[in-house]
């Protein structure tokens, strides 16, 4: 019981220490919050005071400048010409003269030194505080290590030691807290620094992009102004061309109207002169005829009344007529514009020739017109006939196209049928080949029971090719023939003479021994007719040697399994004796398997 009391005391002491640590944390947080609030208020007041001081300095400077300007007249030049001072260094914002710039820079320097002093003071205080905490931590750690020593008892001897232990725990907790806060502050500072660097880089990029955009906008503005000038010039040129065209159009209209008026006057004058000429011509020809007629009448009257009076009247009338004719001839000369009677006569003759020429041209043009009309009718008839012939040709072409389409469809159907027959043929060939491969694989065991010295095989092949099916049909048939030959020799059905023959002679001898061709005459026509029907029904793509195999596939239901003694039954026809049927091959294979099984001492059930 005595050993448990110190532990309870330690627990109570640790609880009290933790409470004190929490209280101290709260106080520290409150103190930090108050400190931040005081710092914010102080910075705000300092800023307000500095702004107020700057404004006062500006007012003082302005007032002093005004006073100096009013008192000294020579200072007006410097005020009137501020550009005479060479500015090598740009002024800070808010400064207009060098003195103001110096004052602003001094104020900024003072503010920066104040901030630097504050930061140094804060840094020194924090450093002293952390050094003190570090010393306390080392002391507490040493005390803790002493207390953790097993040789030393951990029971506090006095109340002061217990309180010191509590204080040590509290200090350790506070040190740990400050270390954590310090690490968090360093992390936040690094993060803030990285964010600041990224923001500075972004600001540089944005400034560069803004400068580029400003340059692009300035270039666009220059282009816009240039295009606006070009547009204005184009509008001016368009207006000028419109005015010029309107003037030209008006002048052309006036000239056309004047030409039309002049042409109308010329036509009217021509018509008038033509009418005058026709009237004079009628008068001339009519007066001449009337004169002759009147003279004859007057001569008859003179013969009746008296020659003297008739002569006087005729002379007077002739003089009057000549005077009238002279007057009309003068008018004719004036109208025609001639100066002498010969010119009038020449013009009259030319007019007559022109009228005759016009009549000739009229007749010629009428004849050409008739000829062209006839030619037009002929061309129209040819056009109609060509249209009819085109329609006929189109119909013939349509018929030919339909015929071609029909032939194409027939060829396509024929191609489909051929493809189906080809696929069926390939299927049958593959099935036959698969059965032959199975048979060869089943007969492969015969080679194990036969003495290789007694019977030699000259057919090179690989068993893997037979299993995979990558073997030619001729080689497969040769292998099958060799297997059957070996089976017959091993069963004792073949003589020693047959063994010494070559492969081709042996095949012929085997056909003579095991597939005899003698048959009854009565069965020959029936079997030949059945064979013809079978050959007719077989596809043409099969070789002739597979006809009996296909026939054997169709007639396997009718052929029953036979014993080895029934092998020498007669074949239906001579053609079937060339190649053994499928049933025959199966029987031979079954016989070989039975003989081998008898040698081994067990019997295989037949299918």
From TrEMBL:
Cross-referenced InterPro entries: ODAD3
CC terms in the record's Gene Ontology section: ciliary basal body; ciliary rootlet; ciliary tip
Transmembrane annotation, as ranges: none
BP-aspect Gene Ontology terms: cilium movement; outer dynein arm assembly
Region (Disordered): 291-318, 513-532, 556-588
Segments of skewed composition (Polar residues): 296-318, 517-530, 556-571
PANTHER family referenced in this protein's UniProt entry, alphabetically: COILED-COIL DOMAIN-CONTAINING PROTEIN 151, OUTER DYNEIN ARM-DOCKING COMPLEX SUBUNIT 3
Designated name of the protein: Outer dynein arm-docking complex subunit 3
Originating species: Pseudolycoriella hygida
Designated gene of the protein: ODAD3
């Amino acid at each position: 019981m005595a050993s448990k009391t110190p532990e309870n005391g330690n627990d109570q002491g640790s609880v009290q220490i933790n409470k004190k640590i929490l209280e101290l944390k709260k106080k520290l947080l409150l103190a930090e919050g108050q400190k931040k609030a005081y710092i914010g208020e102080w910075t705000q007041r300092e800023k307000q005071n500095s702004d107020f001081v700057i404004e006062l300095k500006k007012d003082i400077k302005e007032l002093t400048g005004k006073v100096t300007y009013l008192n000294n007249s020579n200072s007006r030049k410097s005020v009137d010409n501020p550009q005479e001072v060479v500015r090598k260094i740009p002024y800070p914002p808010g400064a207009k003269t060098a003195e103001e710039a110096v004052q602003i820079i001094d104020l900024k320097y003072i503010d920066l030194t104040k901030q630097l002093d504050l930061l140094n003071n804060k840094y020194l205080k924090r450093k002293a505080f952390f050094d003190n905490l570090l010393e306390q931590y080392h002391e507490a750690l040493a005390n803790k290590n002493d207390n953790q020593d097993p040789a030393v008892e951990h029971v506090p001897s006095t109340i002061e030691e217990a309180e010191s232990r509590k204080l040590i725990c509290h200090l350790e907790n506070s040190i740990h807290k400050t270390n954590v806060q310090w690490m968090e502050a360093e992390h936040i500072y690094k993060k803030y620094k990285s964010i600041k660097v990224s923001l500075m880089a972004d600001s540089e990029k944005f400034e560069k992009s803004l400068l580029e955009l400003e340059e692009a906008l300035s270039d666009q503005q220059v282009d816009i102004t240039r295009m606006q000038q070009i547009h204005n010039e184009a509008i001016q040129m368009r207006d000028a061309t419109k005015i010029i065209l309107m003037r030209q159009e008006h002048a052309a209209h006036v000239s056309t109207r004047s030409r039309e008026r002049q042409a109308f006057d010329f036509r009217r004058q021509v018509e008038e002169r033509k009418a005058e000429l026709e009237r004079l011509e009628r008068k001339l020809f009519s007066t001449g005829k009337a004169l002759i007629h009147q003279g004859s009448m007057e001569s008859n009257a003179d013969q009746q009344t008296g020659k003297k009076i008739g002569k006087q009247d005729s002379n007077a009338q002739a003089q009057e007529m000549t005077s009238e004719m002279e007057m009309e001839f003068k008018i004719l000369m004036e109208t025609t514009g001639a100066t002498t009677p010969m010119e009038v006569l020449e013009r009259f003759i030319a007019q007559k020739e022109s009228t005759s020429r016009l009549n000739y041209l009229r007749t010629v043009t009428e004849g050409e017109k008739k000829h062209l009309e006839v030619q037009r009718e002929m061309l129209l008839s040819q056009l109609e006939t060509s249209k009819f012939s085109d329609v006929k040709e189109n119909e013939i072409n349509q018929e030919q196209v339909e015929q071609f389409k029909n032939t194409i469809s027939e060829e396509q159907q024929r191609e489909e049928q051929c493809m189906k027959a080809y696929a069926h043929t390939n299927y049958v060939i593959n099935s036959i080949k698969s059965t032959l491969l199975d048979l060869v694989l089943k007969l492969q065991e015969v080679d194990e029971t036969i003495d290789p010295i007694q019977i030699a095989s000259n057919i090179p092949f690989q068993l893997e090719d037979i299993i995979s099916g990558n073997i030619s049909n001729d080689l497969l048939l040769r292998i099958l023939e060799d297997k059957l030959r070996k089976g017959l020799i091993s069963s004792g059905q073949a003589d020693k003479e047959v063994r010494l023959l070559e492969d081709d002679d042996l095949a012929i001898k085997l056909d003579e021994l095991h597939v005899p061709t003698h048959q009854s005459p009565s069965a020959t026509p029936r079997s030949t007719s059945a064979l013809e029907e079978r050959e007719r029904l077989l596809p043409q793509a099969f070789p002739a040697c597979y006809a009996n195999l296909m026939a054997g596939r169709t007639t396997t239901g009718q052929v029953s399994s036979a014993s080895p003694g029934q092998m020498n039954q007669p074949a239906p026809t001579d053609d079937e004796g060339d190649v053994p049927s499928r049933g025959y091959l199966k029987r031979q294979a079954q016989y070989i398997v039975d003989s081998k099984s008898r040698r081994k001492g067990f019997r295989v059930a037949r299918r």
